[in-house]
């Protein structure tokens, strides 16, 4: 990544639809795009902790490229949250198959709408929102209309996991989760946004015009969409914190490199005490936030959906069944049986309760705010150290500066995340 | 100048900024273009914008530094990059404001020459942490400049530069000079590619045995120190004014958005807390 990211950033500044497939293919070749899928099924079998390390390392070089690579696992995450064996097996099979063929298989999570951002992520806000999307039951499936915006990889996605209400006057009660293939008639991509940073990660408007989706693509029934969102957020927010941590580290490393090379009269910039204080302060913050991030990831392995890989029936199945059976049609067909699907969902809901989800939202939000605020602080401090000359594009530091701010805004603004921390940690004590 | 007149000037500047800068500021950010700056500069000279800091007796606008700061704030509300070009120009004029009357007469006449296209100036201010190696020596009574200048703005735009080099081996001994852009021995590298103020161009200039014309020597000794101090003070103040202008516009945009955006069941601006 390192030799290419500035060039990619410049190309994306000119054309927001530019995507560096060569770099993505290299990551795909070594399976970083399917890292959480069990080894036996063709993935790397990486834990949440291992994935956190991956995100930190990639984000320390380029957060946008990191998301291009790691957001590919979003389908698996959405499916694991559902935990209907038929869906999980289908998603894993498609992802492994695409990886083997070197073909991209992108998933987008479509929550935000032109009239509703944070509203889509919190219960009371959702109850009062004015949605622009709408689902309607029709023979054989559902008809979907409306627009989603600021959707990561929306212009590249093969599937969109979208929350859409059936009744726009009662969005919370009618919010449902759909899997929408982007080759469906009526699906189109609108503008790809020109962002100040993370330019290599495409953020697009997606439009549904009488899009028909079959019954089986209703992942969560009306009223359960928010629960799906909260469970995904309970995982992803922590990872955005990890990404912020990586960005902060990358910015600091660049600033240290610059300060070590830069001569001021008879000494180096890094020999200045004020520079040393800034560096030490950031190192302290990075070490502290890293502890929080990795504790969060370890907790995901121990208590959240990753725990399922260690649960007896899953572990036993992965150990006993041959790979071709695990990825074969017969098991996939069997898994679509309604009874088995219900068992899978019940099994997961027992492992990951509503209380677990809200606990992880609280901790994930805290990690998200800590990591992304640190990203902005580190990028800002790096700019202070390197000055005007060091902020010129070729040094790469200004890119961290541009990339950092967006992390405070997406996956719920940091203000919304702070509210989640308060609502989960303090509200029950004072109500 | 009365407060009524300065209010009128600021109103005119606001109209100019809205009409000439607002519509192109995003485009200038995406594709910085010196010709576009030149056109804005030319149009602004029709309302004497470049000469506002020049005393009225020399055909300037006679604005005080505070009034210039207000004007820069107004311009920066539409585009901080454009405002910074004017700030560099005003700062280049500042040393002359503390010069002798004869020097003022000569240089302001050069700056405001109705026979030529409106001149754009910039200023190189040495800073503690820059890597400038610019210095002067004397050879047969002629001042010669060598080295790399500090980083400064309008480097690829200005017609000439107000320069404050130190004497080789005697850093306290500075001069105040004017260097034409086209002077022999002056070389320009690639400007910095900064994340903001893109329409302006920041960078350094390389001086290779640049022989300073005798009549381009503006001051030396204490007088030059005083000019440097004046230029530096005005630059800090003007930069702050630009930041205030940009902040004000950002605030106004956010306010407009908050008045329109519906969230948490109400107009966003009405959300005091989430309860």
Low-confidence stretches of chain A: none
Helix content of chain A: 55-70%
The whole-angstrom Rg of chain A is 22 Å
Indicate the low-confidence ranges of chain B by residue numbers. none
- The coarse silhouette of chain A is globular
Total helical segments of chain A: 19
Q: Give the topology string of chain A: H per helix, E per strand.
A: HHHHHHEHEEEHEEEEHEEHHHHHHHHHH
Which structural class fits the helix and strand makeup of chain A? alpha+beta
What would your notes on this structure say?
The complex is a heterodimer of chains A (431) and B (275). Chain A has 431 residues and is an alpha+beta fold. Chain A has 19 helices and ten strands. In chain A, the strands form three sheets. In chain A, strands 1-4-5-8 form a four-stranded mixed beta sheet. In chain A, α9 runs antiparallel to α10. The model of chain A has no long low-confidence stretch (mean pLDDT 94). In chain B, strands 1, 2, 3, 4, 5, 6, 7, 8 and 9 form a nine-stranded mixed beta sheet that branches. A two-stranded antiparallel sheet of chain B has the order 10-11. Chain B is an alpha+beta fold. The mean pLDDT of chain B is 92. Chain B has helices spanning 3-30, 34-45, 65-76, 80-97, 101-111, 221-260, and strands spanning 121-123, 135-139, 142-148, 160-163, 166-167, 170-180, 186-188, 205-211, 217-220, 262-263, 266-267. Classes of the chains: A alpha+beta (431), B alpha+beta (275). Chains A and B meet through α7, β9, α16 and α17 of A and β10 of B.
């Amino acid at each position: 990544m390192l030799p290419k990211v500035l060039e990619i950033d410049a190309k994306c500044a000119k054309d927001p639809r530019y995507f560096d497939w060569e770099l993505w293919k290299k990551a795909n070749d070594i399976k970083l795009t399917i890292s959480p899928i069990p080894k036996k099924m063709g993935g790397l079998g990486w834990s949440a902790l291992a994935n956190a390390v991956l995100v930190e390392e990639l984000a320390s070089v380029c957060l946008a490229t990191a998301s291009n690579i790691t957001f590919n696992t979003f389908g698996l995450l959405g499916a694991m949250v559902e935990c209907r064996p038929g869906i999980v097996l289908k998603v894993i099979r498609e992802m492994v198959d695409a990886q083997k063929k070197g073909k991209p298989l992108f998933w987008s999570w479509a929550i935000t709408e032109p009239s509703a951002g944070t509203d889509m992520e919190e219960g009371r806000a959702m109850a009062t929102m004015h949605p622009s999307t709408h689902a309607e039951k029709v023979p054989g499936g559902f008809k979907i209309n409306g627009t989603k915006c600021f959707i990561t990889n929306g212009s590249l996605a093969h599937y969109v996991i979208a929350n859409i209400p059936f009744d726009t006057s009662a969005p919370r009660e009618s919010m449902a989760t759909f899997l929408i293939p982007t080759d469906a008639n009526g699906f189109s991509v609108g503008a790809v946004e020109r962002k100040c940073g993370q330019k290599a990660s495409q953020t697009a408007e997606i439009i549904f015009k009488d899009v028909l989706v079959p019954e089986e693509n209703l992942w969560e029934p009306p009223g359960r969409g928010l629960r799906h969102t909260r469970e995904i957020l309970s995982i992803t927010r922590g990872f955005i914190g990890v990404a912020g941590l990586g960005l902060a580290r990358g910015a600091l490393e660049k600033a240290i490199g610059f300060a070590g090379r830069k001569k001021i009269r008879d000494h180096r910039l890094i020999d200045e005490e004020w520079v040393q204080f800034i560096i030490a302060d950031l190192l302290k913050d990075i070490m502290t936030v890293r502890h929080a991030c990795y504790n969060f990831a370890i907790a995901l392995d121990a208590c959240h959906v990753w725990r399922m890989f260690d649960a007896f029936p899953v572990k036993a199945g992965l150990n006993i069944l041959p790979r071709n059976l695990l990825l074969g049609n017969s098991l996939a067909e069997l898994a679509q049986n309604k009874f088995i699907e219900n068992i899978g969902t019940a099994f997961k809901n027992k492992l990951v309760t509503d209380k677990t989800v809200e606990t992880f939202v609280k901790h994930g939000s805290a990690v998200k705010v800590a990591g992304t605020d640190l990203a902005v602080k580190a990028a800002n401090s790096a700019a202070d150290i390197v000055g005007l000359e060091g902020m010129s594009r070729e040094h790469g530091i200004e890119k961290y500066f541009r990339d950092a701010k967006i992390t405070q805004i997406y996956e719920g603004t940091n203000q919304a995340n702070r509210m989640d921390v308060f609502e989960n940690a303090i509200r029950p004590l004072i109500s | 100048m009365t407060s009524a007149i300065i209010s009128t000037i600021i109103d005119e500047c606001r109209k100019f900024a809205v009409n000439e800068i607002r519509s192109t500021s995003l485009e200038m950010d995406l594709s910085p273009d010196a010709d576009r700056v030149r056109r804005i500069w030319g149009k602004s000279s029709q309302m004497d914008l470049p000469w506002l800091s020049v005393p009225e007796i020399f055909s300037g606008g006679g604005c005080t530094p505070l009034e210039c700061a207000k004007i820069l704030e107004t311009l920066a509300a539409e585009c901080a990059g454009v405002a910074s070009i004017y700030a560099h120009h005003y700062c280049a004029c500042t040393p002359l404001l503390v010069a002798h009357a004869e020097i003022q007469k000569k240089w302001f006449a050069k700056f405001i020459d109705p026979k030529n296209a409106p001149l754009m100036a910039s200023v190189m201010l040495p800073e503690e942490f820059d890597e400038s190696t610019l210095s002067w020596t004397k050879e047969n009574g002629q001042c010669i400049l060598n080295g790399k200048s500090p980083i400064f703005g309008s480097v690829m735009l200005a017609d000439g530069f107000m320069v404050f080099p130190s004497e080789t081996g005697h850093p306290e001994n500075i001069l105040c000079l004017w260097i034409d852009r086209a002077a022999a021995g002056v070389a320009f590298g690639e400007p910095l590619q900064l994340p903001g103020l893109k329409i302006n161009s920041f960078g350094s200039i390389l001086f290779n045995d640049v022989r300073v014309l005798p009549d381009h020597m503006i001051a030396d000794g204490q007088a030059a120190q005083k000019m440097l101090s004046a230029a530096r003070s005005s630059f800090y103040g003007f930069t702050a004014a630009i930041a205030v202008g940009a902040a004000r516009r950002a605030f106004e945009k956010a306010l407009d958005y908050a008045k329109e955006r519906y969230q948490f069941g109400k107009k966003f601006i009405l959300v005091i807390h989430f309860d």
